[in-house]
Amino acid sequence: MIPSYLINLDRDQERLAFVLAHFQQQGINPERFAAVDGRQYSELEYQRFIAQRPRQGKKSWLRGQMGCFLSHYGVWQRIVNSRVRFAAVFEDDIHIAPGLYELLEGDDWIADSVDIIRLDTSTNRVRLGPEPALQCHSHYFYRLLSTSWCTGGYIIHQRTARQLLDLAPRYHQPSDVLLFNHEESAIARQLKVLQASPALCVQDKHHRGAVTFSSNIEAGATRDWRLYCRQCLQGGYRYLAGYKRVEFKG
């Protein structure tokens, strides 16, 4: 069985009960990992964290991004210390698809060259390889060839977790930027990342008609309208260039 970790803030017991019930319906029993709350750090600690991890341009770290990154970082440390080959990482605001358990029964279906398998959807259109790189039962996984967003659920190689821990703090970025942003991450382009299509989990805030959980691990930023317009133009280009949305079918 591939070990699974579920990132959850201590105060979010209702959310924990909700997501655990759905995991346990499939016979999955993830180990809870106590999430880091960036809002609990003093202003001095927060500013020290930012100073060690400067971001490009006018970007900085939100406290929620700080907590989310440190939570994933802590899970990567646990994975490295456990010496398993692969482990699954989940945030606690997700909905999961039937059949997720089939992936976690063992890791013999995953080639050792794979660094990360994204189980989550993405908020943007992505470019995938033309043919599946892996198959597990009726689930297909394609090479991810472009920037993607969200870290609601993924399987990661122990080797890759160690690579992430070895990065100097100046290369740190919010977790999804570090793992999947080809433009801003120092490591993302080097990683062999596969994408489940259809996705096997989706964060609540991106799932239509779902029970609504606000994101307590990472709070959203105020919308930058110039950035939003630029993203809309990029979205139009990606659509014309064959980029696609990864759907969740729960």
TrEMBL record:
Q: Name one GO molecular function term.
A: glycosyltransferase activity
TM ranges are none
State its Enzyme Commission number(s): 2.4.1.-
* Entry keyword set: Glycosyltransferase, Transferase
- Domain Glycosyl transferase family intervals: 1-178
Could you name the domain of life of the organism this protein comes from? Answer: Bacteria
Question: Does Transferase count among this protein's keywords?
Answer: yes
Name of protein: Glycosyl transferase, putative, gt25A
Task: Name the encoding gene, please.
Answer: gt25A
